[in-house]
Design a protein that fits this description.
The protein has 227 residues and is an alpha/beta fold. The chain contains seven helices and seven strands; from the N terminus they run E-H-E-H-E-H-E-H-E-H-E-H-H-E. It has helices spanning 8-19, 31-43, 61-72, 98-126, 147-166, 183-188, 200-212, and strands at 2-3, 23-28, 47-52, 77-80, 130-134, 171-176, 221-224. Helix 5 links the parallel strand 5 and strand 6. It is globular, with a radius of gyration of 16 Å.
């Protein structure tokens, strides 16, 4: 199950995991884009299902989990990729409305917490399962105007570690994918030279390899995708 799967890294991860034989349940707000990703995977022989939903909506979480289990069976791997920057152009913290900070936290932190809470219990009962949190270098380095997003990702990293010590039956890791040529990066840094940015597909392949080799990774670890 992959959230934020309608574009960028999420869509690339969906295709890569499907190419490795996974049945993938794709979650994102944009129904049209999401179905296009799922259709493209199916056209290539994969098993993909589009589940339009908003990770920031508390009422949607149980429906997401139930729908995913119905189409792909028990969730073995849960990838929290859905993220929002908040308002763009990015703002200084003094200019950030409380409601905007709250909305960023709902999608980037509280949503993953809620969905893991629903799914990881069944993983623990089965004695297996993996939860991946997509983080950012903004989680460990403070950048001007990235405050809301950075705070959410720093908290997500610590949530990852906390889950790991509380649920030893399930494996957890967070991963910093680095700077990629995505719509989100363009919205945050419109002046960036796209030629210097990593392709989401290349990053997705490296993360997929981490997932395949996750039994060698210490649960709770924070990993960084290197070029």
């Amino acid at each position: 199950m992959i959230t934020g799967a309608s574009k960028g890294l999420g869509a690339a991860l969906a295709g890569e995991m499907a190419s490795l034989g996974a049945r993938v349940a794709l979650v994102a707000r944009g129904a049209t884009e999401l179905e296009a990703v799922a259709a493209r995977i199916r056209a290539q022989g994969g098993d993909a299902h589009a589940l339009p939903a908003d990770m920031g909506d508390k009422r949607a979480i149980h429906a997401i989990a139930g729908a995913a289990a119905a189409v792909v069976g028990p969730i073995d791997v849960l990838i929290h990729n859905a993220s929002t920057l908040g308002p763009t152009p990015l703002r200084l913290l003094l200019d950030t409305e409380c409601e905007d900070l709250s909305a960023v936290l709902e999608t980037n932190l509280i949503g993953p917490f809620r969905l893991t809470r629903v799914i990881a219990g069944a993983m623990a009962l089965r004695g297996s399962g993996l939860v991946v949190h997509v983080s950012s270098d903004a989680a460990v380095a403070a950048y001007p105007r990235w405050g809301a997003y950075g705070v959410s990702k720093a908290a997500l990293d610590h949530l990852n570690r906390s889950w790991a010590v509380e649920l030893p039956e399930v494996r957890f890791f967070s991963v910093d994918p680095g700077e990629m040529d995505t719509d989100m990066h363009a919205a945050a840094v419109p002046e960036a030279n796209r030629a210097t940015l990593a392709r989401p597909l290349d990053v997705a392949r490296r993360i997929a390899r981490m997932i395949v080799d996750s039994d060698r990774i210490e649960s709770g670890s924070r990993l960084v995708v290197t070029p």
